[in-house]
Amino acid sequence: MFKNVIVRVPSTTVCDGITSADLGKPIYTKAAAEHETYVSALTKTGVNVTVLEPHKEFPDSCFIEDDALCTSKCAIITRPGASTRRKEVELQDLSDVLHKFYDHVEQIQAPGTIEAGDIMMVGDHFYIGLSARTNEEGAKQMINILEKYGLSGETVPLKEVLHLKTGLSYIENNNLLINGEFLNDPRFDKFNKIEVDDDEAYGANSIWLNGYVLVPAGYPKTQKKIENLGYKVIVVDTSEFRKIDGGLSCLSLRF
Fold it and tell me: Would you place residue 93 in the very low, low, confident or very high pLDDT band (cuts 50, 70, 90)?
């Protein structure tokens, strides 16, 4: 069960976020409204939400998931692979809030790079995507820290997607939303695979929270498959964040 969530409000510079999509720039007022709805959806799952202030100098900083990994034993501040995001992890309010919740806060060091959008938690085990943003050294440091606290991790090479959780979401009870290059990966054969169709690939990034699954708006086939498993579904519009490569999980730290 999750008790706490940390989010960061998008800034007025969100339209300048990094993107590989060809969907136009996000509109700040719409992004801000979507974020408020997102926070409201989180609270419906019974978690306490801590809201951090926006930072204009970091257009992507609302994607706070990439800045830290929050486990049952410790928090680990990352070192983002995107150079324009690297100083996000030095923001004092992030450090303060993590130390509020955790006695043990670790940090990835250069030359390691890792973004927690590349990390999927399954119980006490963590799958770590090796991507353009997460390198071997960053993954090695992360696994060493996890093992220090009695947790474990393994790497998953990526070829097609930005982050591991772009194409995978663990929604508990051995159920795994899965799409694209991961479908035939033997690492995931032990799971009950819920295949997300290519035309709804963005829907693969959904979030389990205390029996609920938050699903992005506009992906009815994926939504129906999740509902058929017995989950309570909350649909959340994140279309403005999709324009800058952001999904549901990117917008929060959950622990």
Answer: very high
